Amino acid sequence: MWKALLYKEWIKTRWYLLLALLVTLGFAGYALLKLHRAVALMGAGHIWEVMVTRQAVFIDQMQYVPLLAGLALAAVQYLPEMHRKCLKLTLHLPVPALATLGVMLAFGVAVLAVLFGLGIALLAAGARPVLAPELVGNILHAALPWYLAGVAGYLLGAWTILEPTWKRRILCLLMSVLLLRLFFLAPVPRAYGGFLAVLALLSLCAASLSWLSVVRFMAGRQD
Amino acid sequence: MEPVIECRHLTHCYGRRKIYEDLSFDVPRGRILGLLGKNGTGKTTTINILSGYLEPRSGECLIFGENIRTLTPQTRRRIALLIEGHVQYQFMTIEQIERFYAAFYPAWNRDAYYGLMEKLQVAPGQRISRMSCGQRSQVALGLILAQNADLLVLDDFSMGLDPGYRRLFVEYLREFAKAEGKTVFLTSHIIQDMERLIDDCIIMDYGRILVQMPVGDLLRTFRRYSFRCPDDARLPSGEGLYHPAVVRGRGELCSFASPEEVRFRLEEAGIPCEGFTAETLNLEDAFIGLTGKY
User: Fold this and answer.
1) Helix residue ranges, H only, A43-132
2) Is B91's CB within 8 Å of A80's CB?
3) B40: left (phi over 0), alpha (psi -120 to 50) or beta
4) Which of A116, A154, A199, B273 is an S-S bond match for A70, by CB 3.0 to 4.6 Å?
5) A198 reaches B (C-beta below 8 A)
6) Domain residue spans of chain B
7) Is A8 in contact with B105 (Cβ distance < 8 A)?
């Protein structure tokens, strides 16, 4: 049964996942290309100095890519469920509703983890030949909140889409925007420090919000 | 007979609009029960409450003895649900959707599904979103039958189906339900289909149940009475006389009462009753006789 639930999620998302993989890796590759070009033109010493003294990370252009990837995944996964209230079919399956939702969300978080893991791996592998390990660490630390924003965006997107009424959906949207703002406060290395762990926890807690929407859906709430 | 569905004292409102109050009914095991009513009388509301997607203001529904708000997965496995509009996962193909559902139902009847799909003239790899409305309906019905559930809850099952497939499905469903002892609770706007299919009916009017009885009894005992009378005659109403009206010198009303009793009540009210006739009705006419022509 769990395999069948995952199969459904896979059918919905497979083409999007391919596109998301190409786009996220494409942006990471483009950022690396720019970094390598800057090193070739200015010299590694100058770039290192800029990175240390001005806290530049050279990957700013991919700041919102993980967030958009997460939001789009939520749309691809949950809009078909809300189209003509197909979610009724899913919740009627002989599986506890909470477990069904858990599998759907876990699928989304897992594929984002793979997607973002590959992006981070590409950044690390691509930057290492021209940068000191500490500077590569700086880039990854700067990018980590953005990737977490992707996961949080996905979970908050699921919460908003699964909400059955428009009034409450707008409220969810506003709260999501405010929460996501936390992930983009300072685009500099190690700006979040220990707060990054709090952000990670906050992202995962956002998974429980979708259950509120499902409970409201099952109670037949409507505008 | 032991009830499969028990609804007790249901009351529901949408905002300030009351749909019904204190509605109670049972669906006995092994029976096919049709819920009939005009638009807006609460048929889909009842199905939504029964399928657990609407919390009534008050009252409760039990299916197989369990409250529908807290059904266990094992009990849900015994219930096949057709949602209004024959909703199904449109992003799947005929094959994918069969493979998906088969994993959840141990008694899954693959042959029943593909038997009906053969009549569709579509490729197994065709996506449901690219099918016509009628074809999509047939896929949804094929999945319902393949599930081999003990209780089938079908909301407006005939919507979008062509007459040939409707007849085929009605015959198939009746034979399947009777042979396997299944219980069916359904609604449809096409009452001729219901007449061929159902054992019992519930006829709803705004806010209440007008009758719940076997269709055979309804068709045998409910009659339309007509007679000549003056245009300005005031026909008696209420107390078992439904929708009395006079049109161009001809009085008409419907009732479960015997011809003698109706005639007596008319004469008591001073109606001459010349050319008094009584006729039994088909289900559609009986439905209109009970609920009126708006």
Assistant:
1) 44-53, 65-82, 87-92, 97-127
2) yes
3) left
4) A154
5) no
6) 3-216, 222-291
7) no
Per-residue pLDDT for A187 more than 80?
no
* Nearest-CA distance B94 → chain A (Å): 13
Q: What pLDDT, on a 0 to 100 scale, did the predictor assign at position A29?
A: 93
Rg, C-alpha atoms of chain A: 19
| B3-216 belongs to CATH 3.40.50.300 | yes
What does the pLDDT read at residue A221? 86
Judged by CB atoms closer than 8 Å, whether chains meet at A93 and B104 is answered as: yes
CA distance A223 to A62: 38
Q: Do B87 and A85 touch (CB under 8 A)?
A: yes
- Please provide the CATH number assigned to the domain covering B222-291: 3.30.70
Residue A84: its chain B contacts at CB < 8 A? Answer: 85, 87
Q: Between residues B153 and B116, which one has the greater pLDDT?
A: B153
CA distance A200 to A205: 9
- Which of A6, A8, A90 should one mutate to test binding to chain B, selecting the residue with the greatest count of B CBs within 10 A? A8
Q: Which of B82, B104, B127 would best serve as a mutation to test chain A binding (most A beta carbons within 10 A)?
A: B104
Given a contact cutoff of 8 angstroms between Cβ atoms, the answer to whether B51 and B43 are in contact is no
Domain carrying residue A159 = 2-218
CB contact set of B266 (below 8 Å; sequence gap of 6+) = B227, B235, B236, B251, B273, B276
Residues of B in contact with A96 (CB under 8 A): 73
- CA–CA dist B285, B289 (Å, integer): 6
A223 within some domain = no
Nearest CA in chain B to A3: B103
In chain A, the residue whose alpha carbon lies closest to the alpha carbon of B79 is A92
Q: Which residue has the higher pLDDT, A57 or B214?
A: B214
Distances (CA, A) of B135 to A223, B108, B120, B172: 31, 21, 7, 17
The ipTM (two decimal places) reads 0.90
Domain-located, residue A18:
yes
pLDDT in tens, A152-183: 999 999 999 999 999 999 999 999 999 999 99
Q: Which whole number is the average pLDDT over A67-92? A: 94
Cα B105 from Cα A1, distance rounded (Å):
9
Find chain A residues with C-beta within 8 A of B90's C-beta.
80, 83, 86
